[in-house]
Amino acid sequence: MRPLALCATLTILTSVVAVAQRWDVGPLRSPTPIPRDGLPPERAAFFTWLVVNSGKLPNNAYQRVQERLYTYISQLAKDHAGAFPPASDTAAFNLFRAAAQIGVPGADRVARALYAHPDRLPAPTPIPGFDLAFRPPLFALTSDDSTWGVCFPYYFMAAPGGRQTPANGVSTELVVLSTLVAPDRSPAGSSQATIFIAAAPVADSLKHVTTWLKQFGVGPVTSPPESAAGSWFASPAAEPMRRLATIRRLPQRVLVIFYIGQPGTFETNRPHFFNLLATLRDGRCAA
Predict the structure, then answer these.
(1) Whole-number pLDDT of residue 228
(2) What is the pTM of this model?
(3) 281 by DSSP, 3-state: which?
(4) Which of 35, 94, 203, 211: CA 20 to 30 A from 110?
Protein backbone atom coordinates (compact mmCIF):
# COMPACT_ATOMS: atom_id res chain seq x y z
CA MET A 1 0.00 0.00 0.00
CA ARG A 2 1.39 3.42 -0.97
CA PRO A 3 2.09 5.83 1.94
CA LEU A 4 -0.41 8.46 0.72
CA ALA A 5 -3.18 5.90 0.43
CA LEU A 6 -2.34 4.48 3.84
CA CYS A 7 -2.32 7.97 5.34
CA ALA A 8 -5.82 8.53 3.98
CA THR A 9 -6.94 5.23 5.45
CA LEU A 10 -5.60 6.18 8.88
CA THR A 11 -7.29 9.57 8.73
CA ILE A 12 -10.78 8.13 8.29
CA LEU A 13 -10.49 5.44 10.95
CA THR A 14 -13.17 5.78 13.60
CA SER A 15 -12.67 5.24 17.31
CA VAL A 16 -13.15 1.73 18.63
CA VAL A 17 -16.42 1.07 20.39
CA ALA A 18 -16.07 -2.16 22.37
CA VAL A 19 -19.13 -4.29 23.04
CA ALA A 20 -19.11 -7.02 25.65
CA GLN A 21 -20.19 -10.41 24.29
CA ARG A 22 -20.00 -14.13 24.83
CA TRP A 23 -17.18 -16.03 23.16
CA ASP A 24 -18.23 -18.08 20.15
CA VAL A 25 -18.71 -21.80 20.88
CA GLY A 26 -17.81 -22.91 17.33
CA PRO A 27 -14.05 -23.27 17.95
CA LEU A 28 -14.83 -25.21 21.14
CA ARG A 29 -16.52 -27.94 19.09
CA SER A 30 -13.49 -28.83 16.96
CA PRO A 31 -11.35 -31.95 17.50
CA THR A 32 -8.01 -31.60 19.32
CA PRO A 33 -5.47 -33.90 17.66
CA ILE A 34 -2.16 -34.41 19.45
CA PRO A 35 0.48 -32.80 17.20
CA ARG A 36 3.23 -34.87 15.66
CA ASP A 37 5.87 -32.82 17.48
CA GLY A 38 8.58 -35.36 18.34
CA LEU A 39 7.51 -35.55 21.99
CA PRO A 40 6.03 -38.69 23.59
CA PRO A 41 2.58 -39.02 21.99
CA GLU A 42 0.73 -40.51 24.98
CA ARG A 43 -0.28 -38.08 27.72
CA ALA A 44 1.09 -40.14 30.64
CA ALA A 45 4.38 -40.75 28.81
CA PHE A 46 4.66 -37.04 27.99
CA PHE A 47 4.31 -35.98 31.62
CA THR A 48 6.77 -38.65 32.75
CA TRP A 49 9.23 -37.33 30.16
CA LEU A 50 8.58 -33.76 31.32
CA VAL A 51 9.29 -34.62 34.98
CA VAL A 52 12.48 -36.52 34.07
CA ASN A 53 13.69 -33.62 31.93
CA SER A 54 12.62 -30.83 34.27
CA GLY A 55 15.34 -28.20 34.52
CA LYS A 56 17.33 -29.54 31.60
CA LEU A 57 15.10 -28.96 28.58
CA PRO A 58 17.06 -27.84 25.50
CA ASN A 59 16.14 -24.36 24.28
CA ASN A 60 14.54 -25.72 21.13
CA ALA A 61 12.09 -27.85 23.17
CA TYR A 62 10.37 -25.13 25.21
CA GLN A 63 7.95 -24.02 22.52
CA ARG A 64 6.98 -27.59 21.66
CA VAL A 65 6.38 -28.38 25.33
CA GLN A 66 4.28 -25.25 25.81
CA GLU A 67 2.22 -26.05 22.73
CA ARG A 68 1.70 -29.64 23.89
CA LEU A 69 0.50 -28.45 27.30
CA TYR A 70 -1.94 -26.10 25.58
CA THR A 71 -3.15 -28.98 23.42
CA TYR A 72 -4.29 -30.63 26.64
CA ILE A 73 -5.63 -27.30 27.92
CA SER A 74 -7.56 -26.88 24.65
CA GLN A 75 -9.18 -30.27 25.16
CA LEU A 76 -9.97 -29.35 28.76
CA ALA A 77 -11.67 -26.13 27.62
CA LYS A 78 -13.68 -28.03 25.00
CA ASP A 79 -14.74 -30.61 27.58
CA HIS A 80 -16.11 -27.72 29.68
CA ALA A 81 -17.63 -25.90 26.65
CA GLY A 82 -15.38 -22.93 27.44
CA ALA A 83 -16.49 -22.59 31.06
CA PHE A 84 -13.86 -22.31 33.78
CA PRO A 85 -13.12 -25.66 35.47
CA PRO A 86 -14.27 -26.13 39.07
CA ALA A 87 -11.72 -25.78 41.86
CA SER A 88 -12.01 -29.53 42.45
CA ASP A 89 -10.49 -30.25 39.01
CA THR A 90 -6.98 -31.28 40.01
CA ALA A 91 -6.10 -32.25 36.43
CA ALA A 92 -6.78 -28.67 35.32
CA PHE A 93 -4.69 -27.30 38.19
CA ASN A 94 -1.78 -29.59 37.32
CA LEU A 95 -1.89 -28.55 33.65
CA PHE A 96 -1.68 -24.84 34.43
CA ARG A 97 0.90 -25.35 37.15
CA ALA A 98 3.07 -27.22 34.62
CA ALA A 99 2.54 -24.41 32.08
CA ALA A 100 3.56 -21.84 34.71
CA GLN A 101 6.69 -23.81 35.58
CA ILE A 102 7.66 -23.93 31.91
CA GLY A 103 7.31 -20.14 31.69
CA VAL A 104 3.91 -19.44 30.06
CA PRO A 105 2.82 -15.93 31.21
CA GLY A 106 -0.50 -15.94 33.04
CA ALA A 107 -0.65 -19.69 33.66
CA ASP A 108 0.32 -19.04 37.28
CA ARG A 109 -2.77 -16.85 37.69
CA VAL A 110 -5.05 -19.60 36.40
CA ALA A 111 -3.40 -22.16 38.69
CA ARG A 112 -4.00 -19.90 41.69
CA ALA A 113 -7.68 -19.55 40.73
CA LEU A 114 -7.99 -23.36 40.68
CA TYR A 115 -6.27 -23.93 44.03
CA ALA A 116 -8.02 -23.84 47.40
CA HIS A 117 -5.01 -22.17 49.06
CA PRO A 118 -3.55 -19.75 46.48
CA ASP A 119 -1.47 -18.00 49.17
CA ARG A 120 0.66 -21.18 49.35
CA LEU A 121 1.64 -20.82 45.68
CA PRO A 122 4.34 -18.48 44.32
CA ALA A 123 3.19 -14.92 43.70
CA PRO A 124 2.22 -14.23 40.07
CA THR A 125 5.12 -13.16 37.89
CA PRO A 126 4.91 -9.51 36.76
CA ILE A 127 4.57 -8.89 33.01
CA PRO A 128 6.87 -6.04 31.87
CA GLY A 129 4.92 -3.30 30.12
CA PHE A 130 1.52 -4.74 31.03
CA ASP A 131 -0.93 -5.47 33.80
CA LEU A 132 -2.36 -8.99 33.47
CA ALA A 133 -5.38 -9.61 35.67
CA PHE A 134 -7.40 -12.81 35.78
CA ARG A 135 -11.04 -13.03 36.72
CA PRO A 136 -12.30 -16.47 35.62
CA PRO A 137 -12.83 -17.25 32.87
CA LEU A 138 -11.13 -14.20 31.28
CA PHE A 139 -7.78 -12.47 31.38
CA ALA A 140 -7.69 -8.69 31.12
CA LEU A 141 -4.43 -7.49 29.57
CA THR A 142 -3.84 -3.74 29.88
CA SER A 143 -0.82 -1.67 28.89
CA ASP A 144 0.93 -0.28 31.96
CA ASP A 145 0.03 3.27 30.90
CA SER A 146 -3.65 2.24 30.50
CA THR A 147 -3.81 3.34 26.85
CA TRP A 148 -5.34 0.07 25.63
CA GLY A 149 -6.48 -3.36 26.73
CA VAL A 150 -7.98 -6.62 25.49
CA CYS A 151 -9.68 -9.59 27.14
CA PHE A 152 -9.15 -13.23 26.26
CA PRO A 153 -10.15 -16.61 27.75
CA TYR A 154 -8.10 -18.72 30.15
CA TYR A 155 -7.31 -21.30 27.45
CA PHE A 156 -5.39 -18.85 25.23
CA MET A 157 -1.61 -19.05 25.55
CA ALA A 158 -0.20 -15.57 26.15
CA ALA A 159 3.23 -14.16 25.36
CA PRO A 160 3.28 -10.41 26.04
CA GLY A 161 6.47 -9.00 24.54
CA GLY A 162 6.50 -5.78 26.56
CA ARG A 163 7.50 -2.43 25.13
CA GLN A 164 10.12 -2.61 22.40
CA THR A 165 11.65 -0.33 19.79
CA PRO A 166 11.96 -2.07 16.41
CA ALA A 167 14.07 -0.84 13.50
CA ASN A 168 11.55 1.88 12.63
CA GLY A 169 12.41 3.66 15.91
CA VAL A 170 8.81 3.63 17.20
CA SER A 171 8.19 2.55 20.80
CA THR A 172 5.78 -0.37 20.43
CA GLU A 173 3.86 -2.64 22.79
CA LEU A 174 3.85 -6.21 21.48
CA VAL A 175 1.62 -9.14 22.41
CA VAL A 176 1.31 -12.65 20.98
CA LEU A 177 -1.72 -14.78 21.86
CA SER A 178 -2.31 -18.37 20.75
CA THR A 179 -5.80 -19.77 20.33
CA LEU A 180 -7.22 -23.24 20.85
CA VAL A 181 -5.53 -26.17 19.12
CA ALA A 182 -7.40 -27.42 16.05
CA PRO A 183 -6.71 -29.74 13.09
CA ASP A 184 -4.69 -28.28 10.23
CA ARG A 185 -3.10 -29.39 6.95
CA SER A 186 0.50 -29.17 8.13
CA PRO A 187 2.76 -32.20 8.72
CA ALA A 188 2.12 -31.81 12.48
CA GLY A 189 -1.61 -32.32 11.92
CA SER A 190 -2.74 -29.64 14.37
CA SER A 191 -1.76 -26.20 15.60
CA GLN A 192 -2.86 -23.03 17.33
CA ALA A 193 -3.71 -19.88 15.40
CA THR A 194 -1.85 -16.73 16.45
CA ILE A 195 -3.08 -13.24 17.28
CA PHE A 196 -0.29 -10.65 17.09
CA ILE A 197 -0.85 -7.13 18.41
CA ALA A 198 1.46 -4.16 17.84
CA ALA A 199 0.42 -0.88 19.50
CA ALA A 200 2.16 2.50 19.12
CA PRO A 201 1.47 6.18 19.83
CA VAL A 202 -1.03 7.81 17.45
CA ALA A 203 1.63 10.37 16.47
CA ASP A 204 3.66 7.53 14.88
CA SER A 205 0.70 5.96 13.07
CA LEU A 206 1.98 6.09 9.49
CA LYS A 207 5.45 4.72 10.25
CA HIS A 208 4.05 2.10 12.63
CA VAL A 209 1.34 0.77 10.34
CA THR A 210 3.54 0.78 7.24
CA THR A 211 6.25 -1.19 9.04
CA TRP A 212 4.02 -3.99 10.27
CA LEU A 213 1.90 -4.41 7.14
CA LYS A 214 5.12 -4.73 5.12
CA GLN A 215 6.68 -7.06 7.70
CA PHE A 216 3.77 -9.50 7.44
CA GLY A 217 3.29 -9.17 3.69
CA VAL A 218 -0.39 -8.23 3.65
CA GLY A 219 -2.33 -5.98 1.28
CA PRO A 220 -5.73 -4.25 1.42
CA VAL A 221 -8.89 -6.28 0.87
CA THR A 222 -11.89 -4.94 -1.02
CA SER A 223 -14.51 -6.82 1.01
CA PRO A 224 -14.03 -6.72 4.81
CA PRO A 225 -14.46 -10.16 6.44
CA GLU A 226 -17.80 -10.85 8.13
CA SER A 227 -18.84 -7.28 7.16
CA ALA A 228 -16.50 -6.04 9.91
CA ALA A 229 -15.77 -2.35 10.35
CA GLY A 230 -12.32 -0.81 9.97
CA SER A 231 -9.47 -1.24 7.51
CA TRP A 232 -8.57 -4.83 6.59
CA PHE A 233 -5.58 -6.49 4.96
CA ALA A 234 -4.76 -10.08 3.98
CA SER A 235 -1.97 -12.26 2.65
CA PRO A 236 -1.98 -13.45 -0.99
CA ALA A 237 -4.41 -16.35 -1.44
CA ALA A 238 -1.69 -18.65 -2.81
CA GLU A 239 0.47 -18.48 0.33
CA PRO A 240 0.21 -21.48 2.69
CA MET A 241 0.28 -19.47 5.94
CA ARG A 242 -2.87 -17.36 6.08
CA ARG A 243 -2.76 -13.85 7.50
CA LEU A 244 -5.50 -11.33 8.19
CA ALA A 245 -4.92 -7.88 9.67
CA THR A 246 -6.88 -4.87 10.80
CA ILE A 247 -5.98 -1.37 12.02
CA ARG A 248 -7.72 0.05 15.09
CA ARG A 249 -7.31 3.55 16.43
CA LEU A 250 -7.82 4.54 20.06
CA PRO A 251 -7.39 8.01 21.58
CA GLN A 252 -3.68 7.48 22.33
CA ARG A 253 -2.74 4.33 20.40
CA VAL A 254 -2.97 2.90 16.92
CA LEU A 255 -2.97 -0.90 16.85
CA VAL A 256 -2.14 -3.28 14.02
CA ILE A 257 -3.71 -6.64 14.88
CA PHE A 258 -2.92 -9.79 12.91
CA TYR A 259 -4.60 -13.17 12.82
CA ILE A 260 -2.30 -15.90 11.48
CA GLY A 261 -2.73 -19.63 11.00
CA GLN A 262 -2.40 -22.79 8.98
CA PRO A 263 -5.30 -23.74 6.69
CA GLY A 264 -7.83 -25.51 8.87
CA THR A 265 -6.84 -23.93 12.18
CA PHE A 266 -7.17 -20.48 10.63
CA GLU A 267 -10.81 -21.01 9.69
CA THR A 268 -11.80 -22.94 12.83
CA ASN A 269 -10.56 -20.36 15.32
CA ARG A 270 -11.35 -17.19 13.37
CA PRO A 271 -14.52 -16.44 15.40
CA HIS A 272 -12.37 -16.05 18.51
CA PHE A 273 -10.25 -13.45 16.73
CA PHE A 274 -13.37 -11.34 16.17
CA ASN A 275 -14.46 -11.96 19.77
CA LEU A 276 -11.14 -10.56 20.96
CA LEU A 277 -11.44 -7.49 18.71
CA ALA A 278 -14.81 -6.74 20.32
CA THR A 279 -13.10 -6.44 23.74
CA LEU A 280 -10.51 -3.87 22.64
CA ARG A 281 -10.77 -0.44 24.23
CA ASP A 282 -8.70 2.34 25.72
CA GLY A 283 -7.97 1.41 29.31
CA ARG A 284 -9.27 -1.90 30.64
CA CYS A 285 -10.95 -4.20 28.14
CA ALA A 286 -14.68 -4.73 27.75
CA ALA A 287 -15.25 -8.30 28.92
Answers:
(1) 78
(2) 0.91
(3) strand
(4) 35
